[in-house]
Design a protein that fits this description.
By secondary structure, the chain is α/β, with parallel strands linked by helices. Strand 1 and strand 2 form a beta hairpin. The protein has eleven helices and eight strands. Strands 1-2-4-3-5-6-7-8 form an eight-stranded mixed sheet, with helices on both faces. It has a single domain, classed as Alpha/Beta hydrolase fold, catalytic domain (Rossmann fold, 3-Layer(aba) Sandwich). The longest helix has 15 residues, at 79-93. It is globular, with a radius of gyration of 18 Å.
Length: 291
């Protein structure tokens, strides 16, 4: 997509762990890893990443099989498999992020990565964090195509409808977020991609949330859970259940946020992330704007 891709100036392709990754790197300061949700890609950070780049070195990859990153073996498209792949990417980049930001099930991936023995992460922010991919609304729409495979004409039809805006009432509006037509069109690009949606469905099949739930009590670094109160894909009360399992958790409400709270309220999410880093001693002396 070239220059049309959000923050395309920061894009590069990296070989790591037997895959070709698309990753965006920008900014200066302590390294911050951004993990998008299942089904999305780096375009979801189009406003938030540049805002954070004045304080952090941003590392924002497309997850395996998503966006412009190649897909591994299907049995590696799991929670553990994706976390292992991310660790390989970071090693290849010779970068050690101290802050992790994850959206939706991307927060679960960041948590799994942080539980690794050699993890450099010292603070996490989960945006509408979920221990499982948000299947409710998305899967309802994808199920007809899933039954016959990602090559189904129905899958292509869904993508065209999303790009044209005709799915606003049946998909994107169910998120509780107010995406621009341009952003909705980018999600439509990937909904039309057989490879991308094949990876999404495979992740749904291989996700192991119970193991992560059992391990969360070992996660001792501070975790901030930013909760969009209008999110209908990940119920806001899910944050309470996650927080109960964590040693050091804080919940912050994003009153005007839906599922894509970081796109609805990038200013507030920037403040939440900076404050989390500062409280963890990673940005000492930097003031945070009031919400």
């Amino acid at each position: 997509m070239g220059a049309q891709w959000p923050n395309g100036h920061a894009s590069r392709f990296v070989e790591a762990g037997g895959q070709r990754w698309h990753v965006q790197i920008m900014g200066r300061g302590p390294a911050l890893l951004m993990v998008h949700g299942i089904g999305a890609a780096t375009h979801t950070w189009h406003e938030l990443a540049p805002r954070l780049a004045s304080r952090f070195t941003i590392i924002a990859p497309d997850l395996p099989g998503h966006g412009f990153t190649t897909a591994p073996r299907t049995d590696h498209l799991s929670l553990d498999g994706i976390a292992i792949a991310l660790a390989a990417l970071l090693e290849a980049l010779k970068m050690a992020p101290v802050v992790g930001v994850g959206h939706g099930a991307g927060a679960a991936i960041a948590m799994r990565l942080a539980l690794g023995e050699d993890s450099s992460l010292r603070a996490l922010v989960g945006i509408n964090a979920s221990l499982t991919p948000p299947q409710h609304q998305l899967w309802t729409l994808l199920a007809p195509a899933a039954r016959v495979g990602v090559r189904s004409p129905r899958m292509a039809e869904l993508g065209r409808d999303l790009e044209s805006g005709t799915l606003d009432s049946s998909l994107m509006s169910t998120t509780g977020s107010r995406l621009s037509p341009e952003q909705a069109a980018l999600y439509g690009v990937f909904l039309r991609s057989q490879r991308h949606m094949g990876a999404v469905m495979t992740v749904f099949e291989h996700w192991d949330a119970p193991r992560l739930q059992r391990d969360l009590d070992r996660l001792t670094i501070p975790v901030t859970l930013a909760v969009g109160l209008h999110d209908s894909w990940v119920p806001p009360h899910d944050a309470d259940r996650i927080a109960m399992r964590l040693a050091d958790a804080r919940i912050v409400e994003v009153r005007e946020g839906g599922h894509f709270a970081h796109e609805d309220a990038p200013d507030q999410l920037e403040s939440i992330i900076v404050e989390c880093a500062r409280n963890a001693g990673l940005l000492a002396g930097i003031a945070v704007a009031e919400d």
